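Fold tokens
===========
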Amino acid sequence: MNAKKTFSASALAVLTVGVVSFIVANLMYFAFSLLQGEYPFLGSDHATWIIQITAMYVTAIPAALCVMLFLPKYAPEKRSLGAAEFFRYLLCSFPLLVAGNLVGTLLTLVLTLGRSASNPVQQILTENQSPLMYVTVVLIAPVLEELFFRKVLIDRLAVYGEKNAILFSAILFGIFHGNIGQLFYAALIGLLFGYVYVRTGKIRYSILIHVIINFIGSVVSLFVLKLFQPEALTSALQSGSLDQILKQIPPLLAVGAYFISYYGLVALGVVMLVKTIRRLTFAPTALEIEKGKRIKTVYVNAGFIILSVYCLIKIVINLLT
């Protein structure tokens, strides 16, 4: 199979994830709604995450793997990362997340004419109280997403050029999320994850970074923010009660400490990111695509065009709802 067909098939595999997960999730929501009267559990927050896990990680990604099985595999050469190098890559992830999230938020505001800047996933995490949420976000998603978007895809694409494979897998990872709020930071962090995998040949490093940033961004942040209720502080100030005001100081300090720590990591990450960009290296590969043919081969193919249209429709629907 030539390069163009390989990139097209890879995009179709990601399309398979989107379509299969959409169909399975909606079928399960319909079935659960019919049975909810007899089994109230099926209307709970736990059931919502059971549907998400089943649709995406039990059904859709395995289905996509079937699309990829016939493609030849060329795994990168394996090497270990030292603790200092791993920590440098971890720090690099923080400014990428902040920058991508800022772009996504601003673009969402512009496209919705200021009606919304919310990240749909963040909204779900805030409203849903099931422990399955934490299991999914911190363990299941990082492991299976890295295995698919980094290992499976890059093992089959890197032979056509490491840069091409890393960029393509990152773009697929971004548009796969199907909303502007996640598109940019997912794509940027996907570049980092892809580079780490290509340089080490070991998927455990990108999985671990993914686990850590999801834990900090989704679990720790939600826990800290739930400690502090702006309404309670406003009420305490309006009441003039010293006791009530003093009760608001610990949660306020916790939120402050979190944001100072987080943006301290972002500042350190900017320094590490600049150093890392200067040290980027890409090994020549056996079937590297010629410069003038890269865009046509990688992006102007049936699979990527169909996937892009599908994701654009999802993005528009998310913006309108």
